[in-house]
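Recall that a protein's primary structure is simply its ordered list of amino acids. Everything else, from secondary elements to tertiary packing, is in principle encoded there. The following example makes that idea concrete.
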Amino acid sequence: MRHPDDDLQPPPSPGAFAPGAQTRDDRWPSALLTTAFVVLLAGALLRYVLKHGDSERLPWIVGLSVVLAVVQVAGQARPGSRRAGRVRLAVVVACWVVIVLLAPSFAWCAVPLIHTALRLLPTRSAVALVTALATLVVLAELRLADGFDPNHLLLPPVVAALATGVFVYLTREATRRQHLIDDLVRTRRELAATERREGTLAERQRLSREIHDSLAQGLSSQNMLLQAADRQWDTDPEAARTHLRTAASIAAHGLTEARRLVHDLAPADLAEGAGLAQALATLAARESRDGLTVRFHAEGPDTHLPDQAASALLRTAQGALANVREHSGARTAALTLTCLDDTVALDVADDGRGFPAPEPGGTRDPLGAPDPLGDPDPLSRPDPLRGHGLPAIRARLRQLGGTLAIESTPGEGAVLTATIPLTPASEPAP
């Protein structure tokens, strides 16, 4: 059964026996531990040679010292896997126990081994090994002492306990920090994914509005013209041909719009540097057909508008005139562009039937448009038969900080007013 503290062990970092690829932060402490072990080993060996040079144990001491040094340095040079690190630790500890039993002066070589055990083993196993090492160090110190010295009894356990406590604390703190970093990385990825989804959805909505206000309206006009030509083909061939020529002209313009959408999604009438006033005048001339006369009038200075504002107002005019043609039964319509210092406004007025009067229990839109279905905000309800319509217009204006207002009286026409501020605060949201 795993101890709960075992899960707090961080990924092993390379040391004399640690596995895995070394990082720059791991090399210097592992190299320091290896150096300390070799220095302590060499010092103990030198001491033994100086004091017991004629001892029969000397060959064993020298041989074990060489084995310990080789295994330690090899572990530093090639860390290998975690399992290999534990095998090397077992070899070193076994050799160290034997050499300490033969020569107690090698006892303090256990200090680097304590750190290695803590890094490689689960917490409970490491604590048990550290306790055994500290006990052996105490026994070795007592053998070396001429008499009883409390320091020999207390110093090794205190050093071992201090090293273990500090290591376990730092390990847990590192694990908590790693969990926090993982949470932050995961949150950042989720946020990035959410932003990408929102950006994709916003772009899809924008594309749908662009297609609705250009290609879809052109196709709707072509359909009406072709139906009229079909009805008049036998009775009035000249009028039928006129309808066909008009449909062909709309198709050509729609093809230009499609190419422009593919290229940069800008309205074709605004291409090649044409201003909004000129584009609206062209639109009015093109829409003046089949009993509907569209006039254009500009007021205020000829201000160069931002591309996004000009595109939004032109699309608004296209959508409004499509609604006028298909639903109002109007004979005349007027486009009025008003440019002020900090605001640009577009009015689309018609003399059609206007919005129908609300039925009993219905409500009227706060902007003045009656709503027979009782919806307090009819502009937010898309037409399921035509597409986006007024909701698309308002959404496009809202992105630029603009507003949409409608005034209508049944039987007396309607006026749609789109307003966009030209101040820095009106910049579109990212």
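The mean pLDDT is 76. The longest strand covers residues 332-339.
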